[in-house]
Every structure is written in structure tokens, then in C-alpha cells.
Amino acid sequence: MSQHTGLVLDFGGVLTTPLLPVVLAFEQREGLPQGACISALYQDEEGVRITSDLERGAVSQTEWNEFAGKKLGVSPDNLMGRIFGGLRPEPLLINAAAAARRAGIKVGILSNSVGLAPWDLYDGYDLEKLYDVVVISEHHQLRKPDPELFEITLKLMEMPAEQCVFVDDTEAYVQAAEQLGFAGVHNKDPRQTVVDLSNLLGVDLTAVP
User: Fold this and answer.
1) Are residues 42 and 73 in the same domain?
2) Helix (H, G, I), strand (E, B) or coil at 22
3) Do 115 and 78 share a structural domain?
4) Is 104 left (phi over 0), alpha (psi -120 to 50) or beta?
5) PANTHER family of this UniProt entry (predicted)?
């Protein structure tokens, strides 16, 4: 029997389709050069700061939209929703999480927030119903990879890190979790991630109900 009885999943890029293709599609629609969003919002020092503040809940999504709109030279109107609205559920990992719960694995969500209004990334996913624990970073004024946010998640999961597997599409966050004792899985291909999780949890997560 596996020592792992808990599973903690990132949301965007794990339970959804990948983020990068929808960002590139947004850039194309807006006539922006490829990579403009990544450069302005996730590499530029000021962009990194305000995006981190958004994830901690220190600024609102509307404030982020205004900043990002000016930075990119586009309308700020529902900008977050226009960038990421093309994300869709990732059925392989959603089904795997459901299979894990049916097998008695406790499953939690740990997600860096992008703000909840005017656009709600989590709308329609029934997180509170389908998962045992849901931790959204802005509710705790923290963000991954802050160790305190992982510790809050573990407390709510009521188990130590050594019993949990953590999945994220950002490698640095997986490494941060591993340093705390989690088994880490860097999600790059959902099919491989399901195989890796099946092995770590000792449960066939490919089973369809």
C-alpha cells in the first residue's frame, strides 16, 4: 500500500488546459507581438510585483487589468478574462482526481489566485463540492511558493507533507513543495501525470466510473 494518502493539485494548467496557448491566442487577437504578455507581466520587475500582489489579494483584478492594459497598450476591460477565458477543463486530471477520491485519497486544491471579479477563473468547476480542501491564495494573503501557504493546506488536509503528492505546472512550485516533504509531480503532459500519480498513490487513476 502506498504511503501517500493525500493529493494536492494546482488549478490553472492542471485541472484546466495549458495556459500558454490561450495567452498566445490572446496576443494574436490583439495584434501584440508573441511573448508580449509574458515579458510585460511575468518577467518585467513591475509586472512581476503587481501580479504577485494580485495573487496575494493585495490588489484587485480590476487594478491588475488597468496596469496590464497600460503595459500592453490594450483595453483594460475584463482583461484577465480576455487573456485566460479560453481555458477549458482538463478531463484527464479532473477524472483522475475523482478516481482518487473514490479510492479514499483526500484531494485538495492549492491555487494562486488571479482575482475573483470581474472574471472568475474557478466558475463552473464546483471546487467546493468535488474536492476535500480548497485553498485560494488571496484568501490567505500568501502565494505559492510561500511555505506558509503549503502549511495551511496541509493543516486543512489534516496530514503531513510526507503523505501527500503535489502537482503543479510550474516547476518552481513543485520544488518548493518537495522541500517541505511532498512528493512532487511537474505536470507537462496530463497523460504522463496520471501515470505518475497512479504509481505514487497506488491507485489506477485511469479508471472510468
Assistant:
1) yes
2) helix
3) no
4) left
5) HAD FAMILY PHOSPHATASE (PTHR47829:SF1), HYDROLASE, PUTATIVE (AFU_ORTHOLOGUE AFUA_1G12880)-RELATED (PTHR47829)
Q: Are 105 and 150 part of one and the same domain?
A: yes
Asked if 95 and 175 sit in the same domain, the reply is yes
Considering the domain boundaries, does residue 207 fall inside one?
no
What are the φ and ψ backbone dihedral angles of 25, each rounded to 5 degrees? -65, -40
- Residue 95 and residue 185 in one domain: yes
Give every residue of the chain whose pLDDT is below 50, as ranges. none
Task: Say what the pLDDT of residue 109 is.
Answer: 98
pTM: 0.96
Start-to-end CA distance of the chain, whole Å, equals: 22
Task: Please give the grid coordinates belonging to residue 77.
Answer: 476591460
In 3-state terms, what secondary structure has residue 106? strand
pLDDT at 177: 98
Dihedral sign, CA of 157, 162, 166, 171? positive
* Half-sphere exposure in the Cβ direction for 99 (13 Å, CA): 19
pLDDT of 208 reads 59
Is 16 strand, coil or helix?
A: strand
Same domain, 72 and 156: no
Alpha helices in 73-202, H assignment, sequence order: 79-84, 91-102, 127-130, 147-157, 171-179, 190-201
Owning domain of residue 29: 19-84
Coil/strand/helix, residue 180? coil
Contacts for 121-129 with beta carbons within 8 Å, 24 or more apart? Answer: 121/11, 121/12, 121/84, 121/87, 122/11, 125/11, 125/15, 125/89, 127/11
* pLDDT at position 133: 98
- Domain boundary, last residue among 68, 84, 100: 84
